[in-house]
Fold these 4 entries.
Entry 1:
Amino acid sequence: MKYIPALNLGWLTPLYDPVMLLMRESTFKRTLVEQANIKNGYRVLDIGCGTATLTILIKKAYPGAEVTGLDGDPKILEIAKAKVEKAGLDIALDPGMSFELPYPDHSFDRVFSSLVFHHLTRENKARTFKEIFRVLRSGGELHVADFGKPHNALMYLISLIFRHLEETRDNINGLLPEMFQNAGFERVEETDRFMTPFGTLSLYRARKAL
Ligand SMILES: C[S@@+](CC[C@H](N)C(=O)[O-])C[C@H]1O[C@@H](n2cnc3c(N)ncnc32)[C@H](O)[C@@H]1O
């Protein structure tokens, strides 16, 4: 099974948070959280939570929500655990694979995922979207931040390099929205785009029908 850790090579994982500063992380993650319209009591899942920066942001913004982070890499979950403890927050952190989610059907009101899909092969992207659809309740929403179709000439030039790295090609070809729809999602939209040194970062929203 192909598994790509946070910075591609496992030994680079401790450098993940400093590298993320280059990605305008706080801006795009804040926008992603704001667009999700989370209410008190909502059950929220962050898939591929990594060092839990987004997971912590969600819990701080919505203390009344029940927040869970999931990641397939036990090493990065250790970093996440230390950050969550330091912040004094009640967040569940679970080991697990995005394409075999260890939760019953209809368990969550919102599912987030940031910078994970470009780590997954096309087959695992499709399996993951189906799993997300399964664990969301009817009317629940998926909120994704990941590399998307280049939106200007500079981002296009950068994409010529980055389309060859990890599993980024389908993202850059703009295929994620179509893949959400194939998994059963409706009202699929790209809600925002950001320039980053690694190419266009797109935010998406999709809904499981009521
Ligand atoms: C680039 S990091 C993003 C971390 C975090 N979401 C963020 O935005 O900072 C990608 C994360 O996805 C995790 N990951 C990759 N493939 C996965 C899979 N199939 N299931 C669960 N986690 C996965 C990696 O271990 C890593 O922590």
Entry 2:
Amino acid sequence: MFSSNNRDYNYLVKFHNEVAIITGASSGIGLATARLLTRLGTKVVLAARSQEKLRQVSRGLSGSLVVPTDVTKERDVKDLVRRSKEHFGRIDILINNAGQGYDSSVEKIDLKTYRRLFELDVLGPLIAMKEVIPIMRSQKKGSIINISSGAAIMFLTGASPYTSLKWALITLSRAAREELANDHINVSLVYPYVTLTNFERNTIKAGVSRGEPAGWISQLPHPPDTAEYAAKKILEAIRRGKAEVFAHDWMQPIR
Ligand SMILES: NC(=O)c1ccc[n+]([C@@H]2O[C@H](COP(=O)([O-])OP(=O)(O)OC[C@H]3O[C@@H](n4cnc5c(N)ncnc54)[C@H](OP(=O)(O)O)[C@@H]3O)[C@@H](O)[C@H]2O)c1
């Protein structure tokens, strides 16, 4: 049974000299998280496809390691974990953050696109988890943070390709949390709200349009968040070991 209890993992994660893998570290929430964790003394592994961007980011982040990674490729994800472990000797934190949106009606979902996004939003995080779990178990500590989305827990027409994948990540994470509790491996979900990053621009849109982001975002009942705000929520998840961290309390579903 899934338990939403908060566990105090303060004794597990001290941040200073810890090692964190962050996927999607070249932009947005992943980049802001890499900067925040580095300020706390964590050594970060920067993973994404854009090698040049990662190298630029790395110059400003003391002790960081760049591992160009396409999360849709099983071998890349396995190499990411292997190289991180070889370089630092340990892995304390995994942040499965890389992701992309896909808006379409169910009828118009392009199967090839959906399969690719399944590999990015679900399978990649799963492979990364499978690779780090034995390492974290042998360390008797670890923190896995999976970035879902507030959209996944809402009913939204025209967004089901994305929300269904982020929902799959929720159920994998909840099960893993319970399965790994005795190994002192914490698994948490973070649910960002609309956040000002390249996400909306990168979202694949198949016949569904909310119009220009500046237009619909200005009409939201709550203003959008910054990437730095979302990064603080990720930090909260690592620090407090909470099962689920919502960007805002009002996002929490009534249980
Ligand atoms: N922004 C929002 O409103 C919002 C809301 C809820 C949830 N989220 C979630 O938050 C996470 C971060 O998104 P963001 O807002 O920071 O968006 P973003 O600015 O578009 O960043 C996405 C990151 O994912 C990486 N990425 C994309 N495809 C990849 C692949 N195949 N392999 C490796 N990395 C890949 C990108 O790097 P490269 O292109 O260099 O590979 C980039 O670093 C995502 O999981 C997203 O679903 C965002």
Entry 3:
Amino acid sequence: MPDAPLTPVDVLVLGGGAAGLSAALSLGRSRRTVRVLDAGEPRNATSPHAHNLLTHDGTPPSALLAAGRDEVARYGVEVVTARAVAAQAVDVPSDAGRDGAGSDGAGWAGAGSSGATHEPTFAVRTADGRTHHARRLVVATGMRDVLPDVPGLRERWGRDVLHCPYCHGWEVRDRRLAVLATGPRAVHAALLVRQLSADVTLLTHDAFAPDAEQRADLAARGVRVVPGRVTAVRVEEDALTGIVPADGDVVPCDAVFVGTRAVLDDAVVDGLGLQTTALDFLGEDVGRAVAVDATGATSVPGVWAAGNVTGPQHALAASIAAGSLAGAHVNASLVTADVAAARAARVTTRP
Ligand SMILES: Cc1cc2nc3c(=O)[nH]c(=O)nc-3n(C[C@H](O)[C@H](O)[C@H](O)COP(=O)(O)OP(=O)(O)OC[C@H]3O[C@@H](n4cnc5c(N)ncnc54)[C@H](O)[C@@H]3O)c2cc1C
């Protein structure tokens, strides 16, 4: 038997990580009907602990998300484990049957009433074949990190193969640290990592060659530079112990920092036609991000975005802040639409 049609909601949040849950919290507390669709693969899943998050420093990522889900549930937000595989704007008058704050949203999708103000309405299909409808979308699908193609690197990701000195640098302070280059931004990374330890090696991995200025900077801070490709990581007793270059000796190290390329969920981002920006970091192409204004609004009316889908640099605190702000602005846009719809209803019902 086919599933019963799903009740349309005010807002669908695509992605239930830090940014999505934070947006859902703002919206749930504003008495909006909210459904979060979450595929359950947050970017930091392999990390044992999240750091640099005030009042929650050192908490496991899974515990943060469990607490977030509990919090949004208090305000009636539904969190559904599902992957959105297609999303699009649909042309449906969307004000019939709503009564403002606290409405359950029932009756508006497909209402087709005369005199209704047109506002954006969206349909999102999930991998299980179901279709969800909403008046607004928050895209918080995060990003996927593409690592350099070095055997063994991915398996250590989030443990001793690290992406960010602010998130995990303190934990490896004074250890033997390496930076695996993907391009020129590695010089900046090596100098940041040097703040944490006096034992830092930059492996160029044939991704770039430091110029004279960069070499002088690195030498001044005592950062060793090892040219040539890296072919493997050395792991002993489930811990990184070295990096293996194609030529030369193994570089002993306890942790390696590596830049990644940001890959977005094309089905959602491109399906909705969201404008994206190519990301250049210190002369290196590092992927793309959804373009948003200061409120998180995207190029498509009715769609907001927050968190890593708008840029890989947003750590948890920034993603939570962006989600919260986007949620508030989505609610404000619904308030505006509700006022317009209420005024239109008064005009059409006047004798
Ligand atoms: C290894 C690692 C460790 C990190 N450690 C820290 C740290 O210690 N401190 C810190 O501040 N930051 C840390 N970060 C950064 C942190 O992971 C991000 O700031 C945070 O995950 C961004 O939240 P987000 O909600 O934008 O994305 P995510 O947390 O990645 O959440 C996105 C969610 O959307 C889901 N999704 C994707 N596509 C779809 C779809 N089509 N339909 C439905 N759901 C979908 C995903 O499965 C995921 O659950 C770390 C990052 C990495 C890579």
Entry 4:
Amino acid sequence: MEQLNTDILIVGGGVAGLSATTAFAAAGFKTLCVDAVPPIVDQNADGADLRSTAFLLPSVDLLKQSGLWQGLEEYAAPLRIMRILDSGGEDHGIREQANFDARDIDQPAFGYNLPNWLLRREMVDHVNKLTNASLLSPLKVTRITPRSDEVLVNLSDGRLLRTKLVVAADGRNSLIREQLGIDIQSWRYGQKALAFNVECALPHQNISTEIHRSGGPFTLVPLPDLDGKHYSAVVWMETGPNADDLLKMDAAAFNDTLNKRSCGVLGDLKLAGKRLLWPIIAQRAARLNGPRTALLAEAAHVIPPIGAQGLNMSLADLSALVNLTVEARDSGKDFGGTKVLNTYNRTRWPDMAARIKGVDVLNRAAMAKSQNLRDLRRAGLKTLYGIAPLRKAAMKAGLGAK
Ligand SMILES: Cc1cc2nc3c(=O)[nH]c(=O)nc-3n(C[C@H](O)[C@H](O)[C@H](O)COP(=O)(O)OP(=O)(O)OC[C@H]3O[C@@H](n4cnc5c(N)ncnc54)[C@H](O)[C@@H]3O)c2cc1C
């Protein structure tokens, strides 16, 4: 049976794994990505990922370095203002409002939003053009055996692969993490998120709007206009049973409920396409490394989709890992060795833990049912917004600055 050799093996070709493949290839490593399922790059195909990702500025910088941004830019909707609204009462009125404007921190935008199915299409296209990277799929990694100077990897077609470093981007139920015996800690919130697109009567003006109300936040994220019509992507977090009901509703009943929940901020909204349901959990791995292995993205951490932190945190991990491996390689050291991987864990784990905690607090505040907690939520938003240095610090922290 044929043997494969590569500098770096990426297990998992989700958005995170494909980002890693292009980033390591751009840094000059021979890189191979293996994914268990073929990438779905058509938005109308069954199983297409209809979520979108808001890439914050540091992530856009990484996509630029990887040579991906040039192909993505034309599809991206800039996010110039992050608007948080607090809604309550039977009339779905807006009780408090805060606009966080990127110009306050001297930036033209906080980031750019792109549909996930399109990201996959562009990323796969890009990988296929590279001479030092490839994607093999459908193909599974069934076992890894780390040794002192390499890792032996068994593939589901019987082939054996040798690599210096395994990057596990194989998702929240990571097989690699399990094989390495790395523990996880998980939290449940009793919530689910409904992800879908809407056609809006009014233009979004590049404002991303998060509306807080018991049950969880409802977020409208700008998408580019198409054929003169206005679109936004929606992530609607609700208690599990309510989210199940929303998924089952016919389009007319759903649009009615949707328009109450959106408080009319973008005029009349109409469902455009399918609705997908995602369970909401938070999860973190006890460490981000094992022998010759780095955990990345949901294999390392899962957080509720608030403040666009999930994949952005993963790309911050990736950026750190690329820098560490390049530095080791360029000084003649072992780029897959313990020193590099321990430093990766030491530098990224505290940031990951802090962001999971921050999003947990925001989510619990957004879910709050009791009047006292809801009053506290409104007061917190008012304080955060009303004090300029605090507001600017929050915006910078959201982007990833320490
Ligand atoms: C509703 C919603 C909205 C979100 N919005 C945002 C946002 O705006 N901004 C943001 O930053 N984040 C956002 N996130 C988070 C973001 O979507 C995730 O962080 C990201 O999609 C996770 O990608 P991943 O590549 O780690 O995992 P996955 O997409 O699960 O990919 C894992 C891949 O590994 C493969 N695999 C598994 N096991 C094996 C194996 N043994 N061998 C080979 N392949 C294997 C699978 O086939 C799969 O393709 C959102 C999340 C949700 C739920």
